[in-house]
Write a structure and sequence with these properties.
Elements: E1 4-11, E2 21-28, E3 33-37, H1 44-52, E4 59-64, E5 67-68, E6 76-79, H2 91-101, H3 106-119, H4 135-147, E7 153-157, H5 165-182, E8 185-190, H6 193-198, E9 202-207, E10 212-218, H7 221-226, H8 231-235, H9 238-268
Parallel strand pairs: 3-8, 3-9, 6-7, 7-8
Antiparallel strand pairs: 1-2, 1-4, 4-5, 9-10
Helix pairs in contact: 2-3, 2-4
GO molecular function: ATP binding; ATP hydrolysis activity
Family: Belongs to the ABC transporter superfamily.
Keywords: ATP-binding, Cell inner membrane, Cell membrane, Membrane, Nucleotide-binding, Translocase, Transport
Length: 269
């Protein structure tokens, strides 16, 4: 069983400004859904970069089990907001590229890629060029590329932000289906409150200046989907709606406080 932990993580980019992250502690358990929700500038993406091993904190440590994270590794795969696919490769080549880097032979790569394509419903566009795909399909390829690595932790940086509402909900359903079928841990950053509520067992609310965790909610909406309840039914549940409105008010108040702080700082500058 793999566990990813962040212990007392802090990071500053400038000595004369508030820390980007301050004393962040969190745990990602096996087969869990964790979402970070917060306004722009609260350090969400920076935290993901630290968990992925792309950036080192000033203080604190990230561990996978008992192994200290000192850089990217096979235990964590990342799905980026802009998908970061290789435009000169087609769909199946993009997915299989990581396996090529491991020097696997074509006869070893093809069955793995074919299975992943089927999992994310892209078998019909396996030979398509990346520029021929819709935004939702590109993100499916990005997720497939993460899955092919067999990493126990999938980190997603606002992967559905640019998608229309219908496609976004389809992608949310895909994440839930993969969580159920693959038993992986998903860590997702979002600005979307509904998305955060639906795709988390553990919803973490962050605030900015300094970037810190102010609230953690343990939720069961994803488990209700796992038990067979449709997504539209979950999103129309009074409890879901009430939590959505409460979180909206919290984020609105945080934003107002940050705007006041910024105005005060400019006045005394």
């Amino acid at each position: 069983m793999s566990i990813l932990t962040a212990q007392n993580i802090s990071l500053s980019f400038a000595a004369d400004k508030p820390p980007v992250l301050e004393d962040i502690n969190l745990t990602l358990k096996e087969a869990s859904l964790t979402v970070i929700l917060g306004e722009s500038g609260c350090g969400k993406t920076t935290l993901l970069n630290i968990l992925a091993g792309f950036q080192q904190p000033d203080a604190g440590v990230v561990k996978v089990d008992d192994q200290v994270v000192q850089g990217p590794s096979a235990s964590r795969a990342v799905v980026f907001q802009d998908h970061a696919l290789l435009p000169w490769l087609n769909v199946e080549q993009n997915i299989g590229f990581a396996l090529q880097l491991k020097r696997l032979k074509e006869k070893e790569i093809k069955p793995v890629v074919d299975k992943i394509l089927q999992t994310v419903s892209l078998s019909h566009v396996a030979k398509a060029n990346i520029w021929e795909l819709s935004g939702g399909m590109k993100q499916r390829v990005g997720i497939a590329r993460a899955l092919v690595s067999h990493a126990p932790f999938i980190l997603l940086d606002e992967p559905f932000a640019a998608l229309d509402a219908f496609t976004r909900e389809n992608m949310q359903q895909l994440v839930l289906d993969l969580w159920i079928e693959q038993q992986k841990s998903f860590f997702l950053i979002t600005h979307d409150i509904e998305e955060g509520l639906l795709l988390s067992n553990q919803l973490i609310l962050m605030t900015a200046r300094p970037g810190k965790i102010v609230q953690t909610l343990n939720l069961d909406f994803a488990n209700r989907y796992k038990d067979g309840e449709p997504i539209r039914s979950i999103k129309s549940d009074p409890q879901f709606i009430q939590l959505r409105e409460e979180l909206f008010e919290q984020l609105r108040e945080q934003q107002a406080e940050q705007q006041l702080f910024a105005s005060s700082s400019e006045a005394f500058a």
